[in-house]
Amino acid sequence: MSKTVPTAVSEQEVQQQLAYIDRIAAYNRDFEQQNGRKPKAYTQTFGCQQNEADTERIVGMLHEMGYEKTEQTENADVLIYNTCAVREHAESRALGNIGALSHLKKERPEITIGLCGCMVQQEHIPEKIRKSYPQVNLLFGTHMLWKFPELMYRRVVKNEKKVFDISGDAKGAIAEGLPVERNKGARAWLSIMYGCNNFCTYCIVPYVRGRERSRSPEDIENELRELVKQGYKDITLLGQNVNSYGKDLGIEIDFSDLLRRLNDVEGDFQLRFMTSHPKDASRKLFDTMAECDKIAKQLHLPFQSGSDAVLKRMNRGYTAEHYRELIAYARSKMPEITLSSDIIVGFPDESEEDFEKTLELVKEIGFDVLYTFLYSKRSGTPAAEYPDSTTKEQKQKRFERLLKAQDECVLPKQNAYMGKTLRVLVDGNSKDSEYPYTARTEGGLLVCCNGDNIKIGEFATVTIDKTSLRCLFARQ
Ligand code: 5AD
Ligand code: SF4
């Protein structure tokens, strides 16, 4: 199969960016000679796994440019904030952090403060930053990530005061072959596609991340092989809506076919994926999951609301009944599957009856993990214009009721693990001296564990001997 990705960045363009990295590295070697230290870079990420994966690219590029990592803003020469726009809260936190840097910029005007990610890609933001955050030197949207070396070159080597570039083709572009530095450990993200075509009426993502673009299966498989070679044992395939993988490629491949292909890669590892959309999740997908031994039996399938009327106004493209059927089918094929979901409370004009239907669905399905959000108005989305007679207090009350229902639903599921023996992937240290390691079950549940033969980065077989709402505890 040939590379058919229509929006791929050409190899020549990637080479150009790599050349900018080299030039910055040379500049930074001079910096080191003059200052007796390497320049330092600080990065902070807001939002979802896609943003974390993007930051790993930025960190990889910064590393190649000769920057040393720092955890402190005070001694950083370059500070990059990768922002989120999904809810207002994430935006205010990012802007709050940038605001707090103004004193640092006054003391050390030579530093570079950069903002990137989804928040930046919104139309009104560059002007706002220009006006109210003069300390920001570098601004680039999600489509320009691959041009980071060139933008850094203009700022750092050419000493341009402000390098703002959020143009980018809204269709976005996929660049292969740029550096990436992943967090050490057993888990890795692997982006299989970017963007979203769904336009759920509350969601800003399609506006800031553009249309769906799938990476070629060859590029994905090669990256997976490389990750497995490097020792990663738990790899999460990422996309806003992985179930529509391949639709833009013009070749005969869908997400299930991709999973099967990746499942054939040799090695001791497991694959998981997120996020799925109930509109596009198929029986074929669940059959594939059940048949492929390397695919973790975990499903994150956001339903957002249990009310058909609300789902319609959200433009989700399915009914609560369809969701129920999907879960029933998935469970019939994989009775042990771990289920999680996202829910939005307080969508414009959500009635008490609508909310009750959400509660009902939560209780009926019995999720292992739930992510619940209060609706946040995003300017530019259709729902921002919808009338809303529900008060803030009503929404808050519903949110609290949902949290309670969530705990009531999760606790018995957690308790049911008592005494079970499971294979887990150990991935770090915990704060609990009795259970000093953290691990994840195949279904992605958090386990704190103890045992003589436990090694970080390796699988271990453990028996659950204590449970709680958010964590299982186990010994070898
Ligand atoms: N307000 C609240 N929650 C939102 N999400 C997306 N947009 C909004 C919004 N405007 C939630 C959805 C999605 C998750 C990633 O974030 O539940 O699945
Ligand atoms: Fe947003 Fe809907 Fe796309 Fe998910 S599927 S990113 S909620 S528009």
Describe the model.
There is one protein chain. Helix content is 36%, strand content 20%. The chain is an alpha/beta fold and 476 residues long. It has four domains: 11-165, Cobalamin-binding domain (Rossmann fold); 185-290, Transcription Regulator spoIIAA (2-Layer Sandwich); 297-413, Transcription Regulator spoIIAA (2-Layer Sandwich), CATH 3.30.750.200; 421-475, Beta Barrel (OB fold (Dihydrolipoamide Acetyltransferase, E2P)), CATH 2.40.50. The strands form five sheets. It has a six-stranded parallel sheet, sandwiched between helices. Strands 15-16-17-19-18 form a five-stranded mixed beta barrel. Strands 7-10-11 form a three-stranded parallel sheet, with helices on both faces. The chain binds 5'-deoxyadenosine (5AD) and iron/sulfur cluster. 5'-deoxyadenosine is lined by residues 86-87, 202-203, 302, 304, 342, 344, 373, 375-376, 378.
